Structure prediction request, 1048 residues.
Amino acid sequence: MAIKKPTCFQDIILRLQNYWAENGCAILQPYDLEVGAGTFHPATMLRALGPKPWAVAYAQPSRRPTDGRYGENPNRLQHYYQYQVLIKPSPPNFQDLYLGSLEAIGIDMKLHDIRFVEDDWESPTLGAWGLGWEVWCDGMEVSQFTYFQQVGGHDCKPVAGELTYGLERLAMYVLGVDHVMDMPFNSPGSIIELKYGDIFRQTEREYSRWNFDIADTNILLQHFKDAENECQRILDVSDIDPKTGYKIIMAHPAYDQCIKASHLFNLLDARGVISVTERQSYIGRVRSLAKSCADAFVLTEAGGAAS
Amino acid sequence: MMSDLLLELFSEEIPASVQTRACEDLKKLITNGLVEAGLTYASAATFVTPRRLCLTIEGLLNKSLSTREERKGPRVDAPEKALDGFLRGVGLTKDQLEIRDEKKGQTYFAIIEKEGRDATEIIAEVVTSSIRNFPWPKSMRWGEGQLRWVRPLHSILCILSADDGSEVVKFDIDGLQSSNLTAGHRFLAPKWFSVSSFEQYQTKLKKSYVVLDEQERADHIWEDAKNMTFAQGLELVEDSDLLAEVAGLVEWPVVLMGDIADEFLGLPSEVLMTSMKEHQKFFSVKNPKTGRIEKFITVANKTTADNGATILAGNQKVLFARLSDAKFFWENDLRIAKTGMGEWIDQLQKVTFHNKLGSQAERIDRITMLAVAISPLIDANIELVRQAAKLAKVDLSSEMVGEFTKLQGLMGSYYAAECDLPAEVGVASREHYSPLGPTDKVPTAPTSVAVALADKIDTLTGFWAIDEKPTGSKDPYALRRAALGVIRLVLSNDIDESLARILAYGCYLNFISIVKHKVDEESEAIAQLTYLDLGSLSIEQLFAHVNEIGALIEDKNSKAPCIKITLQSLISFFHDRLKVYLRDKNISHDIIDACLAMPNNVNFLVLKKRAQALQTFCDSADGDNLLQGFKRANNILIAEEKRDGVFYEGTPEIKYATIEEEKALFEILDENEIQINKAILANDFTAAMTSLAKLREPIDAFFGAVQINVDLQIVRRNRLCLLNRIKSIMANVADFTLIEG
Prediction:
């Protein structure tokens, strides 16, 4: 029964990939845009909508510019990884499946105290909410467990179950590492041993400086407006493509612009140029883009519309 | 025959915060439903754990009682339509009706008999509908289902048991079938097992590592934690909210005590306690010898082979990371505090308080002006107040307050101490947000009182000036709380002053801020606007300044008349809050209205004293009778004045008095009028009421013996003027026309 302990960061990612693959998920790759969390991946945000069954898992690099600490804080990073699972409809044994994944990465249920602590998840920028928990292992939050109720203003029918693992924190815990930069990335004993810090210490420092002090706010503001306009423009274009004659609603390209706007807002926030009251209005603008994209997606085939 | 019902709703983890409410709702819904259907019971109890909501009912009837109801219908010779309506109402046909001889003729009667129904049938219905209509504050769907519950519902145990055995009450909710099965602790005993009675259920659960009773879990946690700390000569910091929450997070509580690393022991104890409670749900453990928080208590949900060593080590590690953050914030903050906090003050210029009212820094300027203006009213040291007001909110820029908002003000007091500022300045920072609610402590130190009043008055006048008043249940800026705070500060500190000028000054200051932030208006004159000191300016002079500034931007909404309306509206808001406050002190609304109608009604202390004295007086026999006398006098006057088209406001003369009781009234009025007016001038309302009480008998006697409307006009007019004199003497005390009864 005793599972061999993982030895490094990538070992944990690989085990999660295998575990969820064995449990029927399609293993996707990260989305190729800057996102604040795995939820932003269209495989979650858009595919949680509509009646079609869905089961995916993937690692997603995520960026939170305000969390930059120049690589010095033991566990705060402006760029980090989330592991994301989305299954629709949520299976009745979802909690047990989740606990199985913790065992797969070497957490011995006999010795640890796993708890489901109330946490109502809400993403004001995505117009989404759900009920669930933060999962604690010995007092540490290791995952977010959510039953999606609404996304982009639409009721989720059926309900999708979402799991989000904060990979660095979880791995540090499992591996017994105190500072993220000291965490082995590949197996200790590899010919070329790499630690997390070897890969990310310098970039954390570079991005922290850029995020906080150097990024050109005028350009960012302009990009935000551009993304906002482009998103709306894409959705306003007629459904019928005159070239092919097909009906093509461009929900995904529009949603890309929404993701961009959201990240630009995060950058502006890190630059400290957004006041408390303006904040609400920016969040509202991104949300309205997310809603428009969700409205468009449910009219597409993947969103469940009759083709 | 009686049975006991056991119901368990087994789900994924129920949030601790909704567990207590859920128990009450479950009990109410089901017992009400059963009783309505004719099933009475002896007693009912509920229990809750993170995964189960449980109800047990003892002494439940096995069958509902049969009922028989008679209903009288129309007469036999009544039109067909009436009979049809009656038949529809009772759900019977004509041949099922009885015909009886009544006084008015032959009449139809319907006899409606309901057979007693089996308890199982009723329970199945009531439980099903209770589950479907359960009032969770937030509920959810899961999978493909439509059923809503707080978290996915997995199993329903529902049995009826009696001495001769037990049976499952069978029903099905969206494919979920009732059974006699439940499971134990998620990790320690996950197997499903069957139960046949509540006693057995509770015993088997305990063997399966589940303590069903939440109170038992809380007691267990508390006892263990106390023993553990006591054994080491330490003290557990009480926190009943946290205890209830933690008891709601575990089925099998195991108390563990851990150390806080030495390097964090220098942090303020409030920081340690807040961080541990908010993030980790830890109890704090104090060392009475050092007065510091040195250890923590955490509650695990299970026993382990290593006696919790792994769990404790993990928790300690998480705490280490959390406190490292806190320490980092604290040290950064101290560094800035030592330089005099200038950096923070600068930062507040960039933080918008409200886009129409400017930055936090501007707000602090206004609060400072207001606090200085308030100082003379409460004999506070103006220089101390100025300094305190300027610094009371600078901790909003600190990293610690950024992390833990609820430490605002408190952190400021630590930073003020670090700057060697006068103690009053730190205390004012800590106290100026108070009182936060109806029972929160009210500051008494003059510096704190001045800043606390200024803070709240700035908020109120500001949001009033931009017309963001509370509506209905919406009060996003907590303005009701701010107004109540002002009232409590004034009353608790016996501030015997009208706030009218201060409120007008607040309106004026915020008005200037509004003008400065009109986006489309930019001019030299506006940029150079500064706040005038209140000094000895009158309300009219303040309004005149407002007019001058309003002229700068040619905006009719920014002129004195508008400010006047704003001020009036704010004062009535205060009066409304005062009514609510005094109603809780058993002063009825009409008494308060009678006092609000009097002059000097922005002096809340006078208002309260007047209302209290008046309420006591009106509750007495003298008061009640005098009130009747007053009403009589007033009614006669109104009627006669209307009829004659004149006001009887002349001075009545004793020489026209003809009857003994009339003369006596003149004398008693002469005697007491001076007393009453003196007492009112001195705001001694109890004395005023005592003098008023003396009028009661002579007035009663007067009405008993004297007829007002006599033929002799000169006597009649004199008597009407006498009534008016009664009225006007009493009108000096309160507006008695507004008192009911």
Notes: Chain A touches chain B at residues 74-75, 89-92, 95, 109-118, 120, 130-133, 137-140, 147, 149, 157-159, 161, 173, 178, 272, 275-278 (CB under 8 Å).
